[in-house]
Design brief:
Elements: H1 2-16, H2 28-31, E1 37-39, H3 47-54, H4 59-62, E2 66-69, H5 71-85, E3 91-98, E4 102-111, E5 114-118, E6 129-135, E7 149-152, E8 163-174, E9 179-183, E10 190-192, E11 195-198, E12 203-210, E13 214-217, E14 223-230
Parallel strand pairs: 1-14, 2-5
Antiparallel strand pairs: 2-6, 3-4, 4-5, 6-14, 7-13, 8-9, 8-11, 8-12, 10-11
């Protein structure tokens, strides 16, 4: 349903935010460890910077299993590769769920053999600068070498993550200002902040969908960030 899709979109937007505030789970930029971020200060993207950020990862034997950015940052890397080598960057085959075709496999861009995923809910930084996340995803749940980043939900909700609440009532008009509000019961009148609601209109059913979730990082060596590089220009569109 649409509400579930919006919650999933909100989750992936949350991951890329800079400062999330106290009412949300921490973003990747909130939890990144000291010494795990490279800020290029507006300089052009280089292979040396990408390689250094890649090798800041120490978990999973020093190998990220996912790279994430928005599509403009990925285009910047692709342009750098083509300008340097005259060919498209290398790819790896990934499988995902297509809304029309179902499960599909196709090549996607990679760096050092690690797939580069697009998350266009990550905003460009100020002054047309980009940000890229290098990550170890998943966790071996033990003392081994694989302590990474995982999405988390309350115990018992692993197979039914989304909570739906439904309320039946009627829709009444608020006289001042002209708005509408859901009234769960059917009293003769109700007053909200001095405004009188007359619940004499349509019976309605309102649904709320929530998703108790978060993000956990098993070790600080599972995340590094490269940011502040100048992005490829966007051409005008019509």
């Amino acid at each position: 349903m649409l509400a579930v899709q919006r919650l999933i979109y909100r989750y992936f937007r949350q991951l890329g935010l800079a400062a999330t505030g106290s009412f949300n789970f921490p973003s990747l930029q909130d939890v990144v460890g000291a010494g795990q971020t490279i800020d290029m200060g507006g300089a052009a993207l280089t292979f040396a910077a990408l390689d250094q950020a890649y090798h800041l990862i120490s978990e999973n034997n020093g190998r990220p299993n996912a790279i994430m950015s928005n599509s403009r940052a990925l285009r910047t890397y692709r342009n750098l590769f083509v300008a340097t080598h005259g060919i498209e960057p290398p790819t790896v085959t990934e499988t995902w769920t297509d809304p029309v075709k179902g499960r599909v496999s196709a090549p996607i861009t990679c760096f050092n053999g690690t797939p580069w995923y697009i998350n266009d809910l990550i905003d460009d930084q100020a002054s047309a600068r980009g940000i890229v996340f290098f990550m170890v995803l998943g966790d071996d749940r033990g003392p081994g070498h694989f302590r990474g980043i995982s999405g988390i939900v309350p115990k018992g909700r692993e197979r039914n993550m989304f909570i739906k609440r439904q309320v039946d009532g009627v829709m009444g008009d608020i006289v001042v200002p002209s708005q509408q509000v859901l009234v769960p019961d059917v009293p003769t009148t109700i007053t909200v902040d001095g405004a009188t609601i007359t619940p004499s209109l349509n019976a309605v059913t309102t649904n709320w969908v929530s998703w108790p979730c978060g993000m956990a990082m098993g070790a600080q060596g599972s995340l590094s960030i490269l940011k502040g590089f100048s992005l490829v220009a966007n051409l005008a569109t019509t």
